[in-house]
Amino acid sequence: MPPSPALPEPSPPAPSTRSGRRVRVPKIWDDFVPSSRSGLPSQYTANVVRSAPPHHVDVPPSRDPSPPLAPAEAAWKTEPDGFGVYREYARRPHRDPEAHITLESVCDATGLEKPAAQDTPKYTSIAWIDRTRPSGTLSPSSSFACDGSQEKPAPTDADYGPFANATQFRLVDHFYGRSDTNSLDALDDIISVVQSPGFTTADLAGFSAKKAEHALDVWASPSGVFSAEDGWQRSSVHIPLPRTHAKYPSEAEAPKFTVPGVVHRRLLPIIKLAVQDPDSHLKHIYHWLAHRRYWIPPSAQRSPETEPTSSTSGSTPDSQLPDAPSPIRIYTDCYNSNAMLEAEAEIRQRPRVSGDAPDMEYVTLPMLLWSDATQLSNFGSAALWPIYLYFGNLSKYFRGRPTEFMAHHLAYIPGLPDAIKDFYMGMYGKAPSADELKFCKHELFQQIWLLLLDADFMHAYEHGIVLTCGDGIVRRVFPRIFTYSADYPEKVLIAALRPLAQCLCPRCLTTKDQVADTGTKTDDRRRTHIRQDTMALQANIKRARKNIFKGFSIAGQRVKSWLDPESLTPIQSAFSVRLSAHGVNFYDMLAPDLMHEFELGVWKGVFTHLMRMLAEKGGEAVEEFNSRMRRMPTFGRDRIRRFWHDVSSRKRLAAHDYEAFLITIMPAYEGLLDLPDDQTVADLLFELANWHALAKLRLHTEVTLDIFRVATKQMYKAIRTFAQQTCPRYQTKELPSEATARVRRAKTMNAHTQPSSARKPIAFNVHHTYKFHSLGDYPDYIERSGPADNYNTQVGELEHRHVKRFYARTNRVAYEMQIARKERKRSLLASIRAKDSFWPLSALKQDKKRSRIASAEAHSRSQLSSSGTPLGGVPEPSPPSEHYDIEKSQRDGFHIWSWLEDHEADAATKDFMDLLHDHLVRRFVGSDAEPEDGFSEQHTSGIQILNDRLYRHSTIRINYTTYDMRREQDTINPRTHADITLLASHTDDDHDAPFWYARVLSIFHAHRVNFVWVRWFERDLAYSSGFQHRRLPRLQFMDANDPDNIPFGFVDPDDIIQLTYLIPAFEHGGTTDLLGPSKLARRIKDDGDDDDDWRYFYVCMWANRDIYMRHLGGGIGHRGVGVSVEDSRRHAVRLSRRGRARKSQPGARVANIAQSLGQYYCDSDSDWDSDSDSDSDSDSDSDVVSYASASGSERGERPEVDADEDVVSNDSEGEGEAGDETQNEIDAEHESEREDIDDIDDEVADTIEGDGHEIGVSEELDDCFVDTVYAAEGFAPL
């Protein structure tokens, strides 16, 4: 029997005041600044293989005339940086793309200083597109004077491309850089152009706008970067026309319809343009070689004050080194994904091309594709269907910014011309049928892609192309198509599949009737049957097409018999035609679509049904929900906005709105249903929000992916439980908006009918849709191609803004080519502008505005003081190396004793000076020097505040390092965003909580010692919360009436971690029991009067990615502080919520693992299987993983659930893409081959054993099966 673990040492007594009450002193927070990626904590230095820095190696050319194979090289590793992150290459790169990463280059917040202007690109946006400069601050030569005028930079000898001089270029650039609306700003802009150095009217002799337009259209740069061949062109494609009963010897003999004027660019010139540009500011940061990125996690959770120093200060002797933790794989971008590693390995195995230097790098160019049709105007039928191309060698932090213009517009897909009907009538004497028109539409899409994947591109695909890259190094580049991002209707078009047919998934062969089993072991086996572009499949499509042109009907059995087994269409995919010979399975490139599949798919469908349930319960429930959402506090810079309108009405909502609903809905929906259903819905909402947070992470590790896989099963299980147990209790009907939309659609389809406007019954059917099925692919696809933000369709949606603004400058007739030409002009003008020293006045103004906007909430502009210190002005960007920034103003000062006298009756001012003196002494002498009974009056008597004056500030900006090693900033404002997170010191009873929370009441300084006055929160220890209990942590203000409490205090701004998002527990209402009337303690403007507080608050763990990783744990940028990697694995566990304990009969495989940790694992469903049909689809309320002590008693009985439910077809606007997700009525008697849905504990065990992580193993044994969630409210356990 293993020895009992040693009891933990008792915590040191908490500091106290002279009155003996406890004082909250948070643990010192040491913010790690990623100022250099070269530093290495000393404890890691002896555990990592060292390698020399990369450099260009000159190797004499080989004399062997035969093409040699690529030489085998040893893996090359970089030095770990200060986070313990290093890269492992298969061979040494010629250049390190991360060698020049600086602190400023990883700053994302607008309030942080950016790199100097000479180190960043010229502003690359155009004013009428965005009017912003995406990065870089003003150089000293182009700054503002006090009056906002521009200091004149010296003219330079820049290359102005097709323009003869700076005068002509700046006028044309101003024209394209301004919006169509006239304004005073536009007038100021043209004045600044005319007054700029180098501008002279003599240079305008013979110049005209038409000449300038023509020059931009035909100009080719001497460097070849902008050449005629990479420009836009028109081409024609030909579509064969089938006709039932019309026989032809072959498809080639059938009549063809010509679609003229396809606007497109050739792929190979675009590649040359992107790769060879020597003027690109990104030329040195291309990741040409794939690599694996690893993280050496902290060996144990350490306090921040004991963080190791950088390796530059010396190494720890080997005898003192802790056990080296195993490196953890990181997935951040396309260039460290498995897909690129596999592509690079395939290229390395190729024989080298004869004549290539032995040291020439053979590199992969990952191509990321997006396409999606968009409406160009609010009225009319003007639309555009663009194809966008991005290159995955660039970091997504550049690639994903619309203002960086990283998207290459490849083609604008035309619709099928109406003239085809006339041509068809002329050929066959009859109009084409719907099936024949659909055939032509699908064929047109594939013919356009065959046009784009031309012979030149395919030659480069197979043999590579030798290019001198922008960094001056010659490489042989092999382009590869990695991902294609599109919504579901376009996915099936790309894959040539029938939408929502029997095999509805474009990645696997799961059938429609099997979708409800998603998340089970049976479903996992089915997903292994992926779609393969085999020779047999291609032959079946060819046979079907042959029968079509023999005169058989497209919808007839002679055609469908070859296609229906896999729900194919008689269309040969262009990607299959071009890439199958190279061993490419083109189905793999169809990327998951988080925005459409979850935010506008599964979650939108769940949210809509929750609103139907409230409507069925009664109008008061709906109004209460709307009222709570309207009172929802805001968070961050537009992260959570004010919900002004009734949320239940769902009017004109975007994906961002539904995401905000998901983040905030748990407290708003609490208590609106009866208790059993309320608990089920709370579990569902928690699992959906948890899954969504994991799916949106910008950085994944092996640990988070393991957690994600378990979370996916838990999310699926929660939805099934909701569908089978809760939904049948409610006779839900259409919402009024859904009924109106149904009537409108019916009238559109048949104007002579008058459909009923009565609300029809409608059942929950999300768990029978493709979008529900697709969520199971995300963990594996992230492992293959990187995190979801690399290929989310949101990237393409943002790029639509540009073409819509281009359209505004066309004549609205034949606008495709006009938009194409303006896109090229934009790129050309941006490249010339980067060489010009002149900055338009609007760009300068907007740049300063953007840099200040994050801190502008409570500030007003005013004149400078005599000392030159801004008074009330918006502060300048703060240095990212500083943890916080407070403006240097002394405008709002006050005399302390007079202020205390004025607020003597305010309960918040009790012990104000004693607390302040204790805090200041602690700041000066250190908390370690504090006596156990607190500082005495003798200690604090030496504290003298100059002139007894404090100075108040309206905001403080907190800079912090995110989990993905970026630098971010939060603005704390006592009137709007006042809740903060601090590191817990574990000096109270709540030892498990890693963080403390407080509300900022005021921000002060006294003779430049900055401090923050706060009101403390404390955790509600009677409420079980966290990942295991599927509940948000619940807080309450400290009780000011408790003589042992000190509800107020002071905090060093250096100890603030970041802003936090606290949501009122609306269901529990307000209270006056915690504090008397106080205007000072209740400054939040939306909290109502000064007499009461919300009784409870919930900590919103998914307010943003970084807050989520703070609670989940394992964030690399957090460096193990707060929640460790080991703790994060336990957050994959869900504890049961049963009222009685169950047998402790651990499953054989899991028991071995659990007992090794001194625990027992309980197979949650093994005993129930004997009492129920093992083939049923019943889904109990048991959790994914359950635990019991060795002395557990008999468990409760399994509830009976009817798994086979009738699902009513849903034609509402809220679910699916224009009805694409609508399902026909499902046969209630259908028996699918299923396993017990609850029996997934073995899968968790597989995860544990396969990956060596303790996911699914908990150390909590006490009261595991008692429902403590509602016990505090007086409810009986369920």
TrEMBL record:
Record field: compositional bias (Low complexity): 306-319
Top-rank taxon: Eukaryota
Polar residues compositional bias, start-end: 134-144
Annotated Acidic residues bias: 1164-1182, 1202-1226
Pfam families hit by this protein: Plavaka (PF18759)
Stretches the record annotates as Disordered: 1-25, 52-77, 134-160, 299-324, 850-886, 1162-1239
Segments crossing the lipid bilayer: none
Residue spans of biased composition, Pro residues class: 1-15
UniProt name for this protein: Uncharacterized protein
UniProt lineage: Eukaryota, Fungi, Dikarya, Basidiomycota, Agaricomycotina
